[in-house]
Amino acid sequence: MKWKLAALALVTSVSANASECGTVTIADMNWNSASLLANIDKFILEHAYDCDAELVPGDTMPTTTSMVEKGQPDIAPELWTNAVKEAIDMGLKEGRLVNAGESLIDGGEEGFWVPAYMVEKYPELSTIEGVKKHPELFKHPEDPSLGAFYGCPAGWGCQISGGNLFKALKLEDAGFEVVDSGSGAGLSGSIAKAYAREEGWFGYYWAPTAILGKYDMVKVDFGTGVDEEHFLECVATDTCEEPKPTMFPKSPVSTIVATEFANSHPVAMDYLGKRGISNADLNKLLAWMENEQADAEDTMFYFFETYPQVWKAWLSDEAAKKVAAKL
């Protein structure tokens, strides 16, 4: 009887812990670094904190809007907050969102890029004025009389800022037209294709990514420096009528959490506040992911196996032991 009561107490305790956390929804964004972080969070929340964690499809603008308006999903592990600053600021001000901390310790880097082999041959291409003088070096795939600018995929926040800078830099007047890459894979594929053929390529890209680790690219200098205030208040918004040229500021990349989850899960929030990764480590992980043709879940296990010093620092000793036992 004592054994049965002890067993019942144990089951009740485990059930109480699980129900205390309950179901947690995590945005699985459609780019590799964010998907990797989403899988890491899912595994840790499930096995360290007994949550019933679920990945749901996500994208920058739709996920942010849904979190502000509906409180779902509970967690967006990697949001480039400059890209949706107005919505994020409104959500924070109205108490609907909480910024748990920085996903990328070093922040993100954005810009317009050209291959290094082109700059070696034509040094002026390191500047936007040099690029504008030579649209013929960046032939449009559908109309060789135009220069191609490979833009940010539709639905991503950088589609707004990239489009506004395309306008501000008067690239259309210089003979360029935006090429819709269709997806993150399409955009990275266009760089890989250009490199394989040593052809011209000019467009938007960001770091940390496997692509910028694998291919030597030069960020084009606009000659303007960074006007962060104008970028945030105008260039990054879809209501910007007169965008002015400015380099991209360093991008804060944060873990954004719905307030209801944040208020009811202090232990999980402590983990999310400590969970951050450097660009150097993330570039290596993304390069491994690409070289091995691995998915985000495979790369998550590789991360746990290869970087224990990183993830154990995010957790208490007890929580780290739980995760290690499941691995």
Automatic annotation (TrEMBL):
Q: Out of the domains of life, which is the source?
A: Bacteria
Question: Which intervals hold domain ABC-type glycine betaine transport system substrate-binding?
Answer: 23-298
What's this protein's name? ABC-type glycine betaine transport system substrate-binding domain-containing protein
Q: Which Pfam families match?
A: OpuAC
Signal peptide location in the record?
A: 1-18
Which InterPro entries did the record assign? ABC_Gly_betaine_transp_sub-bd
Q: Which UniProt keywords apply?
A: Signal
